Amino acid sequence: MRDIRMEIAPEELIWLMADGARVIDLRREGEFDHGHIRGAENIRADEILKQDIGGACALYCANGEISKKICEILVERGEKAYYLGGGYGSWITYSIDHMPKSTAKDVEEGIRGKFATRLFTKFAKSIKEYDLLSEGDKVAVCISGGKDSMLMAKLFQELKRHNKLDFGLEFLVMDPGYSPANRTLIERNAEILGIPIKIFGTDIFDNVFAIEKSPCYVCARMRRGNLYAKAKELGCNKIALGHHYDDVIETILMGMLFGGQVQTMMPKVKSKNFEGMQLIRPMYLVREADIKAWRDFYGLNFLQCACRFTEENYGDIDASSSKRLQVKNLIAELKIKDPQIEQNIFKSVENVNLATVIAYKDKAGERHSFLDDYEEGE
Prior knowledge:
The chain is α/β, with parallel strands linked by helices. The chain contains 16 helices and 13 strands.
């Protein structure tokens, strides 16, 4: 191995970028899609080794381990390569520490101006169209630390500012066992954006980490239960989650392709275990592309996935194993040929004709077949 300094800090990466160096993100496609260094290329580790870099390059991954190994190989063969120490996490920390003090004000002005039509208008339309808020409600705005829930919090603050409806808010963060760095990231982002969060801890990650079969499903159920319980303790009658339009259409297709059923992610649901509580999704009509545009315009960096399983198995999980990512890519391919494909998927569960359905279940879960009254028909 050549005696050369390969590890660089975030500020050094900025200098390299200014000098024209390529910045290469080695993470999985889904991680890159959730957030990356502006101007970076998303190339997997095995692919970058097949390329002739043709100049200086700076590599980064989730924590710096994979990018260090790839960088060593590139330097050994004569390339001018560097890697970001600490990976994307160090970039996020650096970026947050250098955010302008006016960020919260700028974001709020953007929600009223530049992004009003794409974000706030659709947020308000979701609430009105699906009757998500009523006079006297108290909503626990559940913040995971990602872009969707953080934006949802800002949109709720803007709605509250309009003062057309009397309702209360609690900005709730559940810590299922985050690493100190991830918890700090959520706290700092909330501070920067002016969101008065309340954090409560649980041991969910400890409880599900050893589960081999469907750990994500169990984790999600436990998270939901803890959120309901804490929200009720705070006097809330509703919890709000940050699922958006793209989540809805992906869920519809996932149910059909992988579950053999027609179903959707509902805009609101009554809790079966917590009497008087409801779950609402006020981002139901907001597009993910617009959320990303908002995030990137202000240079915001949010938590993507703080799951302990993901963190400890980074690099061993094939992106193709993600059913949601498969469906997301499928929709993107179909959209190239038919721009209306997303809207058609969304509308498909609003235009169900039971006369053309082989069988269905009613609200009580009872199954009905077209044969039940077939002989009675014409």
